[in-house]
Amino acid sequence: MSSSFGTLFTISTFGESHGIGVGAVVDGVPAGMSLSEADIQPQLDRRRPGQSDLTTPRQEADQVSILSGVERGLTLGTPIGLLVRNKDQRPGDYGEMSQIPRPSHADYTYQMKYGIRASSGGGRSSARETIARVAAGAIAEKVLREQWGVEIVAWVSSIGDIDAPELDCQGITREQVDATLSRCPDPAAASRMEDLVREVRDAADSIGGVITCVCRNVPAGWGEPVFDRLEAKLAQAMLSLPATKGFEIGSGFAGSRMLGSVHNDPFVQKGARLGTLTNHAGGVLGGISSGEPVLFRVPFKPVATIGKTQQTADFEGNPVELAAKGRHDPCVVPRAVPIVETTAALVLLDLALRQKMRQ
User: Fold this and answer.
1) pLDDT value at 184 more than 70
2) What is the pTM of this model?
3) Among 45, 91, 197, 238, who pairs with 120 as Cys (CB 3.0-4.6 Å)?
4) Are residues 190 and 320 in contact, defined by beta-carbon separation less than 8 angstroms?
5) Who's near 200: CB < 8 A, 6+ residues apart?
């Protein structure tokens, strides 16, 4: 189904950008695990709008409520219902755009597919839908951390043409990431990125960027050949996020320019396990985790809805000028960091449970 994801750990999301709320039904959470809203809320807080002058001014607390599947603080093993209510809707901001498909937005394609679409905010195509994934993914993160010691950290590695220097993916922490408004853990690059986003915002425009993510302590053996390879499931999940335009793991596209003698990762003994000296493979061999850190990157395009006047056409094909109203991020990547982390957790936990069935 189009709004569901996973095999053993599954989520189904619901809700529209300017509707009553957004939520998820999560199935496959082990019984007897301690769980409360306090376990989920921190990632939602990192994702919510209105955090700084780099984000949309829409004010939403994004407080999550657990509706089912938990009793006296313990999971029951039954489906967990999650709901975040929308508080600061302004559907009137979209009245002018009801007959004009926004350039590079999903207004046109949703109308062509269904013959109808949400009248404001993009409905399901809005990034607000990711609230449900973040809430569900925060539960997955807790299971991965408690049962396998898996740590997932993402950060902004570029905005526009400003790149952060290559960082030590083994030592980077969420505290370092959150120390800057841009969520780039390199202070010098972060400062330049933030200046660029403000410049773009003041011009009523938008700009894109890249998020890098590392998943540490992933045991060897996760991933299902051939079609459910670990990197294939990560790519599917990441490309299902709004505004994503690519996926690369390990050396990615740069690896195509290297010699095999340079790109190969020689095996070495690392304590009690066999590991690799380098990690151009990004922690995945043959679609299965190798025990090395799983390292990947996701590029996000500039936000489609901008206030700058654009020459376009309405649904009837008539030329029009559009200067979109509403409240939108000039750059989505700082708020997308927790979205990438929790989406990775959804993939890893599902594959972890599939591997556990074999043991």
Assistant:
1) yes
2) 0.95
3) 91
4) no
5) 160, 206, 207, 330, 331
